[in-house]
Amino acid sequence: MNLQSSTLKKHLADYAVLFLIAATVILMDQLTKSVVRHNLMLGEILLPEWWFSQYARLVHLNNTGATNGMFQNMSQVLTIFPLVVSAVILYYFPRISREDWLIRLAMGLYLGGALGNLIDRLQQGYVTDFISLGSFPVFNIADACVSMGVVALLAGVWLHNRAKKITIQVHSEQ
Q1: How many other CB atoms are found less than 10 A from the CB of residue 66?
Q2: Which residue out of 14, 29, 120, 129 is catalytically annotated?
Q3: 120 part of the active site
Q4: Which of 49, 60, 73, 160 has the maximal Cβ count within 10 Å?
């Protein structure tokens, strides 16, 4: 097997992991949004047991902005941005070491979340939001995965840099 064939197989395996994570996020996101759109009227609130409703509820909202309702009616920018971010993720993902699994997970979560909301924007012109927790702005599965992806990316970069510093210290002491 030549070097090009080996590199291609490695990249395909890497992309398979990325696409599996992203596809799982997209599937969960689109499925839950569909259930909400078909079972709750726009603006309708589904309250769980009275004692729990102050903490969590479902509410069907259409969001033309970004996460937390920012940048309302900026559909064109909010359509282009996830495409650019997706291209960057596709470029960098195979370049991230397999040992940096948290960074790779973060990229998959972010890609899935970005594409999940992009699907809504392209099909409907807005994003369906429905998860309402406490006084936090209403969001959806894609938004949650983007947020978790950012947190995982920050944690992964921090862990990577920490490991690198420890390695440098060990080598300098020898």
Answers
A1: 17
A2: 129
A3: no
A4: 60
